[in-house]
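hiii, so i know i said id send this last week but things got crazy w the move. better late than never?? heres the sequnce for the chain we talked about at the cafe, plus the structure i predicted for it. fair warning i was half asleep when i ran it
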Amino acid sequence: MTTTATRETPAGPTAADSGAGFGIGCGAEFKHGSKPAQIMLAAKDLFTSQGFGATSMDAIARTANVSKATLYAHFSGKEELFAAMVSHSCQAQSRMLSTSGADDLELTEALSEIGRNFLSLILSPPAVAIFRVVVGETTRFPDLGRIFFESGPNRMRTTLSAFLAKAAARGRLDIGEPMRAAEHLIGMFQTPVHLHVLFGVTEGFTKEEVDKVVKDAVEAFLRAYLPRSGLPPL
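okay and structure toks below
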């Protein structure tokens, strides 16, 4: 099995239109088949096929088969729509970390599950498509990158940092800077595979290949951050 990756212009987002300003968190969910979900699906299709700048609210309304009044009743503009789309995607990578069960798992198992969930998300075709849109459009719309960073990657970094800090407080890890440690672990998960898929060097990775990346990353991380007593993870 292979994890594959496929692949009227309003003003760009302003600093005031960051993802945080929309009040859309990782927990925000729209009921399947609801108008907001219908709109967001249409927006994702257009953003990833045409780009952020070339997509208009008129086109989103037509594709979603809703009136402009309905569209604007749910989203003030395409910047908010983009933030909602990214925030919805980041639920997948936050779900494992946000449950109390992760704290009670054996540390190697918990970190491995986090790594598999993270790579499953960022290597998925929708996530790769969104990432490409952000990279391609940020020069013209600088705040698009800020919206994406705050709604997606920074949420993962912050949530993982909190998980690692809690593990350190319980004596399971020896970490002075949890945020830096989170960045180290994310980098070891992401670096061996993400750019290959993003740039089309390879279509995807098998489950076995992803599992090996995760295993190597977790082992290296624990060698660096286990307490110096040399005790195995609790």
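btw Residues 1-28 have pLDDT under 50 and may be disordered. thought thatd interest u
miss u guys!!
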